[in-house]
């Protein structure tokens, strides 16, 4: 494939800045069509972003002869269906995260990719962001010696729509749509990067509960996990904390020091050793998915390999299933 001509299924909020505009900024790549079930919103998106074609039917976009690669940006409950249909039509797929509702759906997607030979990629874009590549570089260079353990901590207050007299929690906390709750949405990124940086996780378990009763999904999760390398990990995620206790930080403790970084809250990496502290500030690019999209386009053109595939993406979903006992 010389020129990658993308079609988006589900041109919602995630595509406005994170991804949609990036398709036209990557060499040998362009966004040529979008689809949304609401025709007025599909037309509006196409008009605002200068996309030549829009649809309100999925099959119409998949069968568009001018589209040769498809980005599935819908909620997770339709990822498997749309990705499989696109691959069966011979079109490479880039799918949002979490990859699907559960590990079983991920495997079904990967099975079709293997059988058809059509590539499948997942939007775990932290594998290509300079900030996280710096964290991996520090690990690989053994700046803090051999890693002993990792601890992930996230305390966030409820979102505005989840509280009040007439709450509207949203699809991310509807397990039948998202596969879980905020833990599934956010921890999928965290576990994917930790495996990228530290190697495979061989076991994981945890406890997931709903304490506040604001929605159907779990709102607190604690977990422990064991890497094949011998590194151990723990984590706790609470989505109904007081805003004064808001904290999002991951710590890597090694034989010679500690690395602290954030997945979502800031752009600073702190390294502490006996020599003192060093700080690296590495902002995210305007379109955070652009570096990964460029690697995917290069692979489709036969010029490289993407670090995020269906096979790697499925591992994160398997871990979420183990931890929440789904």
Task: Provide an overview of this structure.
The chain is 32% helix and 26% strand. The strands form two sheets. It has an eight-stranded mixed beta sheet, covered by helices on one side. A six-stranded parallel beta sheet has the order 3-2-1-4-5-6, sandwiched between helices. It has two domains: 4-123 and 288-304, NAD(P)-binding Rossmann-like Domain (Rossmann fold); 130-283, Dihydrodipicolinate Reductase, domain 2 (2-Layer Sandwich), CATH 3.30.360.10. With 326 residues, it is an alpha/beta fold. The longest helix has 17 residues, at 182-198. It has helices at residues 13-19, 39-48, 58-62, 79-88, 103-116, 130-140, 175-178, 182-198, 290-300, 310-324, and strands spanning 4-9, 29-35, 53-55, 69-72, 93-95, 120-122, 147-155, 201-209, 220-227, 232-238, 247-254, 257-261, 268-273, 276-281. The chain is globular.
Fold blueprint:
Layout: E1 4-9, H1 13-19, E2 29-35, H2 39-48, E3 53-55, H3 58-62, E4 69-72, H4 79-88, E5 93-95, H5 103-116, E6 120-122, H6 130-140, E7 147-155, H7 175-178, H8 182-198, E8 201-209, E9 220-227, E10 232-238, E11 247-254, E12 257-261, E13 268-273, E14 276-281, H9 290-300, H10 310-324
Parallel strand pairs: 1-2, 1-4, 2-3, 4-5, 5-6, 7-10
Antiparallel strand pairs: 7-11, 8-9, 9-10, 11-12, 12-13, 13-14
Helix pairs in contact: 4-5, 5-10, 6-8, 8-10
């Amino acid at each position: 494939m010389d020129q990658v001509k993308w079609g988006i299924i589900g041109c919602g909020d995630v595509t406005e800045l994170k991804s949609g505009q990036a398709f036209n900024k990557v060499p040998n790549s362009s966004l040529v069509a979008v689809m949304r079930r609401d025709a007025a919103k599909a037309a509006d998106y196409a008009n605002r972003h200068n996309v030549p074609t829009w649809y309100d039917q999925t099959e119409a976009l998949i069968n568009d002869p001018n589209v040769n690669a498809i980005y599935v940006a819908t909620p997770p409950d339709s990822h498997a269906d749309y990705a499989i249909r696109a691959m069966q039509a011979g079109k490479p797929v880039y799918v949002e995260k979490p990859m699907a509702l559960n590990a079983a759906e991920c495997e079904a997607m990967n099975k079709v990719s293997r059988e058809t030979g059509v590539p499948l990629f997942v939007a775990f874009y932290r594998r290509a962001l300079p900030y996280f590549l710096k964290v991996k570089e520090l690990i690989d260079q053994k700046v803090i010696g051999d890693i002993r353990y990792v601890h992930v901590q996230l305390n966030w207050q409820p979102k505005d729509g989840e509280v009040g007299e007439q709450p509207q929690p949203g699809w991310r906390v509807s397990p039948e749509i998202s596969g879980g709750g905020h833990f599934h949405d956010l921890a999928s990124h965290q576990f994917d990067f930790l495996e990228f940086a530290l190697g495979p996780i061989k076991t994981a378990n945890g406890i997931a509960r709903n304490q506040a009763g604001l929605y159907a999904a779990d709102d607190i999760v604690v977990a422990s996990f064991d890497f094949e390398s011998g590194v151990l990990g723990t984590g706790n995620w609470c989505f109904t904390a007081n805003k004064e206790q808001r904290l999002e930080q991951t710590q890597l403790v090694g034989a010679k020091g500690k690395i602290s970084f954030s997945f979502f809250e800031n752009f600073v990496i702190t390294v502490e050793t006996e020599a003192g502290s060093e700080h690296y500030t590495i902002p995210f690019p305007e379109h955070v998915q652009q570096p990964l999209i460029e690697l995917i386009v290069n692979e489709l053109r036969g010029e490289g390999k993407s670090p995020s595939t269906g096979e790697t993406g499925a591992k994160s979903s398997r871990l979420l299933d183990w931890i929440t006992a789904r």
